[in-house]
Amino acid sequence: xxxxxxxxxxxxxxxxxxxxxxxxxxxxxxxxxxxxxxxxxxxxxxxxxxxxxxxxxxxxxxxxxxxxxxxxxxxxxxxxxxxxxxxxxxxxxxxxxxxxxxxxxxxxxxxxxxxxxxxxx
Length: 121
Known about the structure:
Blueprint: E1 13-16, E2 28-31, H1 36-46, E3 51-52, E4 54-55, E5 62-63, E6 70-74, H2 80-93, H3 97-103, E7 107-111
Antiparallel strand pairs: 1-2, 3-6, 4-5, 6-7
């Protein structure tokens, strides 16, 4: 893995929470993937762009009482530090940097304040 916490002892913990197909997709809990400084950096990048979260997409995108949080999307190469983090995500997922650039959505940051939620619908 590239800069930041390393996979293995006293570092990133990759824990499988599901068994995968045929029951469904595999779900992992990844502990220690980001340092506190990296988390703060992502929050600082996102804060100026946070807007009320929407539901739907494209022409169907709309504000809704179902989702009351705020969301920002950050481009992978916003700065070198974020790009390094995104490359680490690719390493953990076992995909290439090109896969991240061509196939992954922008980094989505969601902020929930007290009382905000994403209701079951």
